[in-house]
Amino acid sequence: MANRQSFKTDVSFLEKISIGATGTKKVFDDLKRQTHAPIELERGSMSFKIWKGIKIKRVRVPDILCVKCGKRVESRAKTKLQITMSHSIASPERGWDFGLNDEDFIALVSCKKAGEDPTDWKASDLVQYIQVNYLRKVFRDKKVITERPKGVEEGFETRISWPCAVASCDGTVVEINNRIKFKRTEDNRTISLSLKKKNITIKPIVTVNGVVKQDQIIASVVPVIQDFKCLGGRGASDYQKMLKSTSLSERYAAAKALSYFPKDLQVIKSLLEKMGDSKDHIYIRLEAASSILKLGQKESIDFFKEVLRDTYLENRLEGVIILGEINSSYSAELLIRVLLDKEQHPEIRAGAAWALGELKNKEALQALVTVFDDINIDVRSESARSLFRLAEIYSKEIIGLFPKGSEDVRAGISWALSKSGNFSVKDLSSVMNDENSRKWVAWIIGSQKQEKFITQIEELKQKDKEVYFAVTVLWKILSSWVSDLDIY
Question: Where do the coiled-coil regions begin and end (predicted)?
Fold first, then answer.
């Protein structure tokens, strides 16, 4: 039972991460639609990846930054759309608005389940924005609803809600008085929503005859918009000045943003100074080092080497994750070295394997395959997942590593090829040089959809009738109605 409960907890956490990442991706795309130049400011805000062993406490910043106008956006994905946020009165760092400026925006987007897997979520096309200064004013005026979850003690997080009315369906507004009435598009039924929430008056955001969408906020205590223009005006010199700001989040944003401007000697100089500032936060120095490498300069390589040997595992892991964002032979070389270093902590090595998969660098193939013989299952598992991502591009090169591999190496290669499906029967049949390889080839092909390879299978029949028979048996079993039948 304990294991099952732990599994449920992991799935629940992955689901929450996935909802947030799905929502942030939608906001990112919506900002591009509005001609902004968005970048991911908070690392991992658009990723489903979970680091279970080593917890990274990052600089708290909004999820997205427009490098052209400097506007920052915090994405909040909701399964039931309301203007709500968690808050702590005991810890400022857990306050709903910690790390936010008045000019920042909160973006709200509704997410619905789209499949059975924890990562299967779909975001609504409707993204709604609220500027932080309006939320703060209403919060100070105590026109919010505070709900403390049952059973918690002082200091635990509460839920703050800014009263609003949300359309449950598409429709057209027909009347506004002390209520908003709109006719549902589907069946012309009239829907009525009150303009009072727990004795707090909310203001209409729509007009009579206006069209409303499902999950649209149509009345609220704060202004809600669906677009805000990118006014531009931010250049490299502005971000260079921000590197000297007293605000931690502004220095962080500046260090990251500068990599998106053309290489300039003054920009490189500013970044080098920040990277070498031992008094500043290590993560700001890492962002500066990352920007230097992204701009094609090698001066930050030694700094990354130091970070990858840091006393604190959290800093090492952050360094590894950052290197996975830099499309450079230098970053790949550093990550390969970490992956193969058995003195490194297993999760750091697993992180390096994951990062190599993000880079999709051909030079990583041999290293990823080599660690399939490693004693640590997490290192092997993460390497297999990365090999799967590389198999989409380098399947023939991966198949070429199969013949000389051990049992564990062949298992990892087979899994990656099977998941990718990016191979031909002819390529696989060329590496059937012993009994063991014949079994793995049979499994790789037999685990695919029959219709995809049915035209290629005759060639296998001519070469090896036993493998051909095994493949056809697997197809028969896996296509049967009982293949996915469970006992409960």
Answer: none
Distance between CA atoms of 375 and 189, rounded to whole angstroms?
64
The predicted structure's pLDDT at residue 156: 65
Classify residue 67 by its DSSP letter.
T
- Closest C-alpha to 318, from 94, 58, 128: 58
Closest by alpha carbon to 397, among 373, 421, 418, 413? Answer: 413
Instruction: State the pTM of this model.
Output: 0.90
CA angle 18, 19, 24 (to 5 degrees): 95
Per-position DSSP letters for 173-215, written without gaps between them: EEEESSEEEEEETTT--EEEEESEETTEE-EE-S-TT-EE-TT
Q: Where in the chain is the domain with CATH 2.40.50.100?
A: 163-220
Give the helix/strand (H/E) hosting 358.
helix 346-359
Is 50 exceeded by the pLDDT of residue 154?
A: no
Please identify which residue in the block is written with the tokens 């793995």: 440
Burial letters 155-168, b for 16+ CB under 10 A, else e: eebeebbbbbbbbe
pLDDT band at 155 (very low <50, low <70, confident <90, very high): very low
Residue 8 in this model has a pLDDT that exceeds 50: no
Residue 420: both structure tokens together: 């990718």
Q: Is the dihedral of CA 182, 185, 188, 189 positive or negative?
A: negative
Nearest 10 degrees: CA dihedral of 463, 469, 471, 472?
130
Residue 273 C-beta-side C-alpha neighbours within 13 Å: 11
In DSSP notation, 317-351 reads HHHHHHHTT--SHHHHHHHHHHHH-TTS-HHHHHH
Sign of CA dihedral 472, 474, 475, 477: positive
CA distance 257 to 391: 32
pLDDT single digits (tens) 73-88: 999 999 999 999 999 8
> Which of 187, 173, 161 lies closest to 218 in space, CA to CA?
173
Amino acid letter, 174: V
User: What does residue 262 show for φ and ψ, rounded to 5 degrees?
Assistant: -55, 150
Strand partners, 185: none
* CATH for the 163-220 domain, from 3.30.70.240, 2.40.50.100, 2.160.20.10, 1.10.10.10: 2.40.50.100
